[in-house]
Protein: Response regulator
Amino acid sequence: MERDEEQTQSSEWPWPVEAETGRRARVLVAEDQPEMRALLHRALKRRGYEVVEASDGPGLVQAIIDGLLAEQTLVPDLIITDVRMPGYSGLEVVARLRREGWKTPVILITAFGDAQLHQEAELLGAARVLDKPFAMEDLCGAAEALVPPVR
Structure:
């Protein structure tokens, strides 16, 4: 019990999931283009990730909430999101997560990656911004550098 109490007092939001030997890392992919979302899903799954999908900004937020409310907390280890999506932009979601104290790494993908967007993403704490079109190998390499597929 002492360990649990100590962990509760020192843990930051979001509450960390206990390290589980052999647990696949969970990636939340938010992309409004179905073909691109399916491509990302397949590539990440082949690399050994568990993949959860969202088709827009509200879906991304709902997937996070659903993970927190699940019987066994299922927060994502990594979020990959398009910048321009219906509802909320990827930048808005990153800003909100950081305001709430979340440190989950976020990779932003965009077809509109000018210098201003890259600077804003960096200031908000995005781990990486990839400009479309990008090589799937680059995305998977960035994901593996941030969060190995098996934890």
